[in-house]
Amino acid sequence: MPAAVAVIAVAALWLAVTTLGAIDPLYLPNPLDVVGRMVTQAETGVALRYLAPTLAAALLGAAIAVAVALPLGVVVTHSRLLASIVEPVVAISQTVPLVALAPLLVLWIGYGTVPIAVLCAIVAFFPMVTTTIVGFRSLDMRVVENALLDGANSWQRLIHIEGPMAAPAVLAGVRGGVVLAMTGAVVGELVMGGAGLGTLLTLTREAADTAGMFAVVAWISLSAMVLYGFIQMLERAAVTRLQGEST
């Protein structure tokens, strides 16, 4: 409720300011114009045509990040030597701006969905590997030690004890990484070109279509929110299944 009230208050203030003409529409369009533009884009199929490539690149990048980050995080928590090597490299990698990586990916891979997906994977990788490491390092060692006393081997401890206990932290990182992958996809399309929302944002910017730019940003935010909610539902179901809890 507080969040809904805050959103309504901001929207009402936005509507009042633009209706009274306090700000030029070139800088801040009327929210009704933005909503109208979104409705038109949805009815004509423009929204879906530009949204599909962005979602495809974001989900592919998120899948790549999951395939690399989660196993690496698990291995790092079980090897001090590997942790001392990998953790500084992972931290340093986050200091490189995305707009600096994009031209290199074009040079190495070329144009298309793949380099954009790789950029998405780089963006999503850090929160996934970090939360995986934190989740496995925060385990109740008494439970792990009891499993050792019961004769459980490394794989049995990982699958039946450590994995389910660390699942909430790991899946929270996956959720955050998937949302960040949307950002990576848009940035990649802005820099490397493509056929997604980043390209539509470039077209509306070059046409000085402020309402169109706001509509594209709204589509990006709406898509990220839907992805966030969907992953959150999967996360709750997975945690319930892994930890043997009932709904």
TrEMBL record:
Swiss-Prot/TrEMBL GO biological process terms: transmembrane transport
Under the heading SUPFAM superfamilies, the entry gives: MetI-like
* Subcellular location(s) per record: Cell membrane
Q: Which GO terms describe its cellular component?
A: plasma membrane
Q: How does it sit in the membrane?
A: Multi-pass membrane protein
Species annotation = Tessaracoccus flavus
Per the annotation, which location comes first and is thus the protein's main one? Answer: membrane
Report the residue ranges that make up the ABC transmembrane type-1 domain in this protein. Answer: 51-235
Which residue positions does the secretion signal occupy?
Answer: none
Indicate what this protein is called per its UniProt record: ABC transmembrane type-1 domain-containing protein
